[in-house]
Amino acid sequence: MRLVGVVLAALLATGCGGSQPEGQAADRTTVGLVFDTLREERWERDRDLFVARAHELGVEVAVRSADGDAERQHALAGELLATGVDALVIVPTDLDRAGAIVRDAAARGVPVVSYDRLIRNADVALYVSFDNVKVGRLQAEALLEVRPSGRYVLLGGSPTDHNARLVRDGQLAVLQPAIDAGRIRIVADRWVPGWDPERAAQAVSEVLRQTRDIQAIVASNDSTASGAVEALTKARLAGRVAVSGQDADLAACQRIIEGTQTMTVYKPLRPLARMAAGAAVSLARGETVDSLVKVNNGLKDVPARLLDPIAVDRTNIDVTVIADGYHSREAVYAVAR
Questions:
Q1: Which listed site, 15, 50, 166, 182, has its alpha carbon 20 to 30 Å from 280?
Q2: Where are the alpha helices (DSSP H) in the chain?
Q3: What's the pTM value of the predicted model, to 2 decimals?
Q4: Mean pLDDT over residues 228-236, rounded?
Q5: Which helix (H) or strand (E) holds 185?
Q6: What is the pLDDT at residue 3?
Q7: SS3 of 270-313
Q8: Are 286 and 280 in contact (CB under 8 A)?
Q9: Which of 155, 220, 166, 226 is nearest to 188 (CA)?
Q10: CA-to-CA distance for 232 and 211, rounded, in angstroms?
Q11: DSSP β-bridge partners for residue 112
């Protein structure tokens, strides 16, 4: 992965290949950017970073949000295609149904970049994300370190999100030897539609009504972790049960300082969004975009660029999330005052 990091740095420095100089006047090239949702802090950051980079490259971005509705996402993408966008970047709501968007775009000769989540069974031009299997591995490793034995709850993300499945694959790759050895026992396995914190809280509450003897909850992101901590707090178990997360949301970082969440996985969004924007601009201008790896989506081996995630806990939050300026130290440590 060191080589990947070096190559990525070079790509970022050149605007991801074929991009024009920064600060140029805007041309008529337009990129459409359609999110699953903008309700989460993480996606607002992606939007702002992506748009800022595209503007540096002289390209306008038309942003839309589907609010978690796959049909609405299809309709919004269709509207953007009708306006004549030169490339589409999609954070898919439903990984299979989003294939229809790719087919509509192909009919107009418009390339599609699959952002952070891989659209399945479609001719995607490029997939840009983090190594999601490694995300799951980091979560499981962190919890096993603090709770090497006991009863575990698996709290997955949305069942329609392939990333959630990849995260689970990583979690089980680490947990399975401990399960087979009898050191830990999975007492509940739940998936959370839409990664919704309220549904996560309900799922954990249901488990706690059956048993309070739980040592760890492998929550797949910070939204599901927030629901888990809410349920644990009501049961007066917060801080006693280890909880993982992902995305380094401010509230999650505060919970880490507070002691109610064990860790999160930090995915530096600036390199991801800037890389995706540079690639989308190049594709929109008809230029070739190199990839580092390929990931099969059921139809083809999709050219892909995958960045490394970083495990964050109380011991390194200052030198990762805070040092990068992702959150201020004042905000993260506000709960400690």
A1: 166
A2: 2-13, 41-56, 70-83, 99-107, 132-146, 162-180, 197-210, 222-234, 250-258, 269-284, 329-332
A3: 0.77
A4: 98
A5: strand 184-191
A6: 36
A7: HHHHHHHHHHHHHHHCCCCCCCCEEEECCCCEEEEEEECCEEEC
A8: no
A9: 155
A10: 12
A11: 88
Would you say 304 and 317 are in contact if contact means Cβ atoms under 8 Å apart?
A: no
Rounded average pLDDT over 12-41 = 65
Contact 118, 302 (CB under 8 A): yes
Q: Residue 291 is which amino acid? A: S
Separation CA 263–CA 259 (nearest Å):
10
Q: Which two tokens stand for residue 208?
A: 């706690």
Q: pLDDT at residue 279 above 60?
A: yes
Residue pair 157/220 in contact by the 8 Å Cβ criterion: yes
**Nearest by Cα to 187 from 164, 205, 214, 220:** 214
Length of the chain: 337
Torsion angles phi and psi, residue 84, rounded to 5: 95, 30
Question: 265 near 312, Cβ under 8 Å?
Answer: yes
* Pairing between β-strand 310-312 and β-strand 264-266 as defined by DSSP bridges: antiparallel
Q: In sequence order, what DSSP letters do the residues of 148-163 get, joined into one string?
A: SSEEEEEEE--TT-HH
For the segment 292-333, what is each residue's pLDDT rounded down to a tens digit? 799 999 999 999 999 999 999 999 999 999 998 899 999 999
Per DSSP, what are the bridge partners of residue 62?
32
Dig out the tokens for 36 from the structure. 């699953």
* Token pair recorded at residue 230: 């809410």
Name the nearest CA neighbour of 96 among 33, 36, 160. Answer: 160
